[in-house]
DNA sequence: GGTCCGGGTGGAAACGATTACATCCGATCC
DNA sequence: GGATCGGATGTAATCGTTTCCACCCGGACC
């Protein structure tokens, strides 16, 4: 492998000049610049990343810390992050699927020195764990995190609003017994969606019933399980709202198996609007989340901080969600709904 | 940030000794070792990764190059890779969603010096592009690649076998007009699955018809489109085999919209057996691919090469696929099928 | 009792870049 | 015509490790 010295020797200049050409820093005469470029190309010179980041203390790499991932949602987020990062010339160090908290913290420590900034999407992690395992000044953005500490930048989606809008829509269709399949325990998105569900009921003067709030963990299987139980209730709900689409799909499957027709006997709605939702039978109503955009925005936020000379003000942003009404929750599509669907 | 020098000074030893303790290389007396450990912990010393990899020329990082990703398949692969990598103390530098070949090659070059080994899953990339953009000796494993050059290690799945088994199953159920929705052009998995389809037809003495081989690109949308067209054919097929589950799901949606009942009027089958397949209505028959295992195995293969002192022999492995028969392709489940389903 | 051995330790040379600082030199200004 | 300026270039320090080599020293061996 050719080093900067080899190039310098071959081009008859000093390493300083070569460095200036490579990084386009400092003045170099046109003639020299051209010659060095040629030599560098010919010798296939690639600057040694380690040496460079040893002296500059920068890596042009961003770290991404994810929870144990669930399907489509995950790949969409990563994709958004990846695109934004590449656009800015940054690389991505990804660490996912951490079983427990100790593992997450270990992964966090391992990022030290390898990244210039970090995007963290990990529900079970608190602020203390963060500051204890990371260098002080590492730019950080929390994605859909439960941490409400203003000390951190954070990006979230309208979980509460989206959930309550969906439940209000169901109420508007005449449903009074509306069940909810909750998301993973201790997950921020999950609890916000639950909160939205409860708020919508309350606002409509419908009393909350614990037998209608079933547990789930965002997997199809757990959705299936929960709906199977709901189908057996003496006093069956007429609608069920799942905290994500995967569970909604599992629920639809359970209802079919139990001979409950959708949406006539039970309306079903999900959250996320993953691509497959519209291809379900019947097509699944959901709350659209700009998943890819979430990743892109997070990347831009963290890059802003990476590049900022001075410590910036903390930022908190929330991305809007949109109701997407399809036939799984029945009711004739109103003009308003149709418009939404067209989006 | 504390450096090794700080620790050495504080512990009253030389940096060499500290290094020996940190890396557990060379002899250090028990007493000294303990003292250095204490000091290092107290000062929160973390070895500087850049300095370390500058001198050792290793990064304990693996690169992963992926095509523009499609949903669940992708996240499962990454997860497998991630788990195997972590288990071995390696990090993951991920680069995905490359629109064209130039972008892929750029990503490839950018990996130089940042990784000790590389897992590549990119259909449109040939052997020349690889050797031209990478250092000579970088351990490399190709995943489901079209490159048949024996110069590279490769890992594939039984695309041909899985596809032909599924089509034979359909034929066994009495179907003679079986359509296929093809995968993305120039994609290796896609063409192998097509080959399997054709081979099964041929073996059964069924003549191939071009109007039954529809194009697709692995997305739900393309599956929908293809099936919508099939439904309109004068002489409609009685079964359709999609090159992946996403398209099969899109196809099922189109058939429903066209009023074609599944499986009575048309049987449907997919490939991959993504988690959602079994929750479809009706549950989707598919060919199970050990996706996570694919990632894990690839990681182990590349790590073997990374750690090997001497250049190893080239390896090529193929992972088995399994037929998973559900009700979307009708027919009473035979004992054999039932056994398979239980898996 | 000298030689040899090997565990424990330190000194210092790498690794390959960036960059502050010094130097040179021709043009410009007064 | 000398002082000044700024563009072009080189020298060398620096980043934080690993590791080769040398050294010391106590015990075993002959």
Describe the protein in words.
Two copies of one chain form a homodimer. Chain A is an alpha/beta fold. The first copy, chain A, has helices at residues 4-11, 15-23, 30-42, 49-56, 71-87, 101-111, 127-133, 159-172, 188-203, 220-232, 245-257, 291-307, 335-342, and strands spanning 61-65, 91-95, 117-120, 140-143, 153-157, 178-181, 213-214, 239-242, 267-269, 286-288, 316-319, 322-324. The interface between A and B is large, with 50 and 50 residues. The structure holds a DNA duplex (30 and 30 nucleotides).
Task: Outline the secondary-structure elements.
The structure is a homodimer of 343-residue chains.
Chain A: H1 4-11, H2 15-23, H3 30-42, H4 49-56, E1 61-65, H5 71-87, E2 91-95, H6 101-111, E3 117-120, H7 127-133, E4 140-143, E5 153-157, H8 159-172, E6 178-181, H9 188-203, E7 213-214, H10 220-232, E8 239-242, H11 245-257, E9 267-269, E10 286-288, H12 291-307, E11 316-319, E12 322-324, H13 335-342
Parallel strand pairs in A: 1-2, 1-3, 3-4, 4-5, 5-11, 6-7, 6-8, 8-9
Antiparallel strand pairs in A: 10-12
The first copy, chain A, binds a DNA duplex (30 and 30 nucleotides) through residues 3-5, 13-17, 19-20, 22-23, 25-29, 32, 47-57.
How are helices and strands ordered from N to C of chain A?
HHHHEHEHEHEEHEHEHEHEEHEEH
The portion of residues forming beta strands of chain A comes to: 5-15%
| Spans where pLDDT lies below 50 across 5 or more residues of chain A | 333-343
Approximate shape of chain A:
elongated
Please count the beta strands of chain A (DSSP E, at least 2 residues each): 12
Record the strand order, biggest sheet of chain A. Answer: 2-1-3-4-5-11
Oligomer: homodimer
The greatest interface between two protein chains, and residues involved on each side, is: A-B, 50 and 50 residues
Task: Report the sheet with the most strands of chain A, covering strand number, pairing sense and barrel closure.
Answer: 6 strands, parallel
Question: Nearest-angstrom radius of gyration of chain A?
Answer: 26 Å
* Structural class label of chain A: alpha/beta
pLDDT averaged residue by residue of chain A: 90
Taking the alpha carbons of the first and last residues of chain A, their distance comes to: 53 Å
Helical stretch tally of chain A: 13
**Share of residues in helices of chain A:** 40-55%
